[in-house]
Model the fold of this input.
Amino acid sequence: MSSSGFVLLDKIAGETSFKALFPLKRVFCTKRVGHAGTLDLRASGLIIAATGRATRLLPYIEAKDKCYTFRLHLGYETDTLEWDGEVVEQDDRSLSVTRAALEAVLPQFIGDIDQVPPNYSAVKIDGHRASDLANRGREIELKPRRIHIESLKVVGEGLVTEGCTGKSFATFDLECNCSKGTYIRSLGRDLARALGTCGCVSMIRRHRIGDVTVDRAVRGDALTPEHLLPVDQVLDFPVVRLNDDQVKAIRLGNWVPWRTPVENLSTTPGAEKFVFTADKDGAVIGLGVYDPGRICPKFFLGDD
Done:
């Protein structure tokens, strides 16, 4: 089996995304591992990890849209915007908030919106993580970032999470489909403010990245070599099969003529039209770019 590929992990709440990669290093006997899309320490769900040369493909995974569920607690806000942080505001105005009232403000958050990340986040300020500066007591002012929320809906209400440091006067479960760079904790804060109160979140879980869902994922303690997936089973770039001479040319960094139509290429204006190049047996050996009449190599993914 190739040492390069993707692994779909179901991260448990309470471990870092970095620690979630440890089983990959042990099972696949490599230090060359990485992942796309960091999950908060207390969040759970899908992480797409990579080994070997497949780590070069992680930026294309990270760019995919994502789906989360989370629990919104109305009535108090914490420094971390999570249910168990240090309480910075307590407010009983949410006593009167109903599901209908929450659903009425959701349209404000659909589409392209500006969002300020949490102070406790990996956003860099002058080369330092915002969370590190916050832990040192530094004053932080993060700039808004443009994100896209495709859909946002209430899927439950009235549940309480153990370990709340403040008093929740209303609690709702929501589902969010959103772009890269969206902070669910910030979304919870902003939803509460739109309702005229304050809030925080718990139970963040990532269910999907692109077309890959968490029900295909494995817990780290159950990982085996058989869970290593070929890259074309996770990224949906078209696969073009090359003959032996074309494979040699691609490995040497040369383009090859290509007159055969390629289906399912990107239709995004100005975007590169990526393809996986494969040998005659269908095993992916590289990432290429389709130009009319030729395929140019971007980087090599096969075994030496």
Observations:
- The chain has six helices and 18 strands.
- The chain has a mean pLDDT of 91.
